[in-house]
Amino acid sequence: MAVKVRIPTPLQKITNNQAEVETKGSTVAEVIASLNTQFPSLKERLCDDKGQLRRFVNVFVNDEDIRFLKGDQTPIKDGDELSIIPAIAGGR
After folding, report:
1. End-to-end CA distance of the chain
2. If you write DSSP's letter for every residue of the chain in order, what string do you get?
3. Which CATH superfamily is domain 2-86 in?
4. Nearest C-alpha neighbor of 59 from the set 88, 13, 28
5. Cα gap 12→58, rounded to integer Å
6. Of 40, 46, 79, 89, whose Cβ has the fewest other Cβ atoms within 10 Å?
7. Which residues on adjacent β-strands are paired with residue 2?
8. Is 22 in contact with 5 (CB distance < 8 Å)?
9. How far apart are CA 88 and CA 18, in angstroms?
10. CB 34 within 8 A of CB 40
11. Where are the domains of the chain?
């Protein structure tokens, strides 16, 4: 199943400066694994040594935060859009 993935600016150098890429997978975890096959070293930026998404990486499927769904086991359907959004800290 084809899924469109939006890549944040800091990671676009890994995806050959592409802001959106297409890949396949039936869960968020499979999409991340597929992305890593296309763009080696991307997964290490998104996941820790245990393969879990880093806590400062937010992932949304069709504008729904996967933390409130099934995490990296959230199902993906053909045509879904996955957005990777790094957390931003700071302010006053």
Report:
1. 43
2. -EEEEE--GGGTTTTTT-SEEEEE-SBHHHHHHHHHHHSTTHHHHHB-TTSPBPTTEEEEETTEEGGGTTGGG-B--TT-EEEEEE------
3. Beta-grasp domain (3.10.20.30)
4. 28
5. 16
6. 89
7. 24
8. yes
9. 21
10. no
11. 2-86
Structure tokens at 34: 């597929």
From first to last of its 92 residues, what are the pLDDT tens digits of the chain?
A: 689 999 999 999 999 999 999 999 999 999 999 999 999 999 999 999 998 998 889 999 999 999 999 999 999 999 999 999 988 766 66
The tokens for 23 are 């890949």
Residue carrying structure tokens 């992305």? 35
State the pTM of this model: 0.88
List 23's β-bridge partners, or say none.
Answer: 3
